[in-house]
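Hi X.,

You mentioned you wanted examples for the new student's onboarding notes, showing what a folding record looks like when two proteins sit in one file. Here is a clean example. The first protein comes first, with its sequence line followed by its structure tokens.
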Amino acid sequence: MTVPDWPSDHQVLDTAEKLGAKIIDLLNDAGGDAWPGSPGIAGSPGDTIVRSLHHDALDVLSLDPQKISDEFERMQTVCRSMSPTKSSDLIDAFRSIDYSVQDWQGDGARAFQRQVSMIQGFIGQQSEYTLATIRSLVVLLGISVHARRDYCALAQATMAAADKAMKLSEEADTKYAIGLGASLVGALAGIGFGGTILSTTVGAIISMSGSTVQKTVDDATYKDVVKGYTGGRSQIMDAFKAGIGDAKNIIAKARDEMSREKNELFAPMSPVIDVTKPEFHYSTFYSAARDVAQFDGKVSSEKDKMPGNARPEGVSKPKSLLQQRLDG
């Protein structure tokens, strides 16, 4: 489990609550007919302000970085285990199969080799789709962390602007930076290429950055402060939603590509070898290192026994010696 390196749910909600209180103070300070009332009075302007900011925070919290990072690491493990180029177990298994049947010939041998080839192709397809899933998770993880950071930075700058507007502090810093945007998403999506994604850490992802936009919340009046906040919030949420869309597109593209690659692994197969049929012959599955003719006599004698095996009604026919040997 990854140790969080981002604002927690509690921190984001607490920041939004403090911002609500500060906006109410600013509105009170402005005087006039805009008295907000107590936030505890349902339906009052103060209550509306607090609830609105609470919902803003919930929007930012709609993606949970911890759950995404856990799933990202789990999918990395899955992908390593099924990668045709990374999994030593898979590589050894298919190498052993290839070595065992490389000299075998006949229709049965070719059907078996084709089936093995389709299994390899299917695993490759699933591996590629899993890689796309991981790339999507990388994007979601990055934007979920940056959205929290950017929102908290915006809220802090807005509170500082409110203090300056109320003449409570001349030194308060009203500047903040938005790191969430198209360049960040591009950098996050780029992690998935070049074969590095299976070794990428959560720490590396959440430390990624793109072009940063420097912003300032105007502190002249109450309306300026609120306008600065709402403009920054919209920019953050627009980039947040666009990032989620990009993550979805990664999956949609991978699904579309996989649907176009036909793999007949699970399609019905016609039997190529049937040891119970009179026409069965070892030439359908044999090794070139052994002369198939040496089995002809034994196959014929086994076939001669098959029709005359009388058995009581309801008793299944026992396997022939030939079938037993083929079964191992």
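Then the second protein repeats the pattern, sequence line and then tokens:
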Amino acid sequence: MTVMWLCLLFAAALLQSTASSDGVSVECTAPEAEYGKPVTINCTISNTLKEENCTCLSYAWNNMHGNIKCDSGNYTCDWDKKNYLSLTISNFTKEEIYTVNLWTDCGMAKSSHIEVKARMVSPIKDVSPGPTEVPPEATNPVPVMLGILAVIALAIVCALFGKKIMKRIKNRKPQEHWTDPAHQMV
């Protein structure tokens, strides 16, 4: 039973990557792009029926939001009705998945999912460091020595007088209730 499910999953994946129907197929690139820059998806149209000369009749680009209107705003489309088809996004702003449907006189073809991904661009330029000077306070041992002496002195004071201080805290008598004379009744 497990083998059957694996075979079905493999067949489904194979069918999803197939971009042909009847006598035509469409194969597209999945480009990477920089934000704010133009990016082009290029597709190759192939005739699988060698004996026929297929002519493309129309096409439709789609993204996750539906049909894309070519030559309006952010999108420009191009094709030669035989071999290639392209979609240019003039201002890449987010990663999306695109598809293209192609109708010819030999049949219809649909591309597999074309995922346009963002190319990571490092904002940090390679700058070789120049010679650096060490500040004089970083090499002065006096502050470090004073800190060490302060810790040692505190340890000695705690060792000598710690027991006496703790006895006073334990033997301390509670203070009598004190009231503010301004709040006393006259």
